[in-house]
Specification:
- The chain has about 210 residues and is α+β, with helices and mostly antiparallel strands.
- It folds into three domains: about 1-105, no CATH class; about 110-150, no CATH class; about 155-213.
- Helix content is about 40%, strand content about 15%.
- The protein has a three-stranded antiparallel sheet with strand order 6-5-7, with no helix packed on it. The protein has a three-stranded antiparallel sheet with strand order 9-8-10, with no helix packed on it.
- Helix 5 packs antiparallel against helix 7 (about 195-210).
- The longest helix has 24 residues, at about 155-180.
Amino acid sequence: MTNITHDHTHKHGHKHQDRKAQYVDPVCGMNTADPSAFAPYEHDGKTYYFCSDHCLAKFKSDPDSYTGGDEESSEGSAYTCPMHPEIVQDGPGTCPKCGMALEPVTPAAPTPTTKTEYTCPMHPEIVRAEPGTCPKCGMALEPRAISMEEEEGNPEYDYMRKRFIFGAILTTPLVIIAMRDLIPGGHVLENLISGRALGWLELILATPVVLWA
């Protein structure tokens, strides 16, 4: 008689424990035996219970992360606990340590593919797809990696390009002044500007080219 009573009490205790675990918040893992303590929400014909509006809003934003969605889509997907990232399992569920709902692991962004181009360090406008020599100065072309997915500027290239353009602007009139005797109509410069003034102008134009460009 005592054994029967003990078995009945033991079974009744199991039913009481199952009742306590019946209403579980799928977002944070909290549970209650009183459904009125949680806010109900129906999704795909099934009622879920939430301990707070925050958990309910999080569930509404992505319900498949907490219900598992299609079994086929969730199969093979890795899920982890945000509080215990070492817990990883296939498919949705709850964390065995804290009871929180497992969240799908976000795959790492793919590494952008790159391609290699070859350019001349002295003439950055020279760009080739294969190694070789610069057609202007004969230097060996140096490789540089170019991202194919992200069009990011190359600071070194931009700096060299600015120097090249600046130098070209100053060098053009400098060449005309220096070679005026060989250029048709070059004597007009001497009629407009004295030789001494032209010498000073050459010095002004050549100084920044030599020191910076």
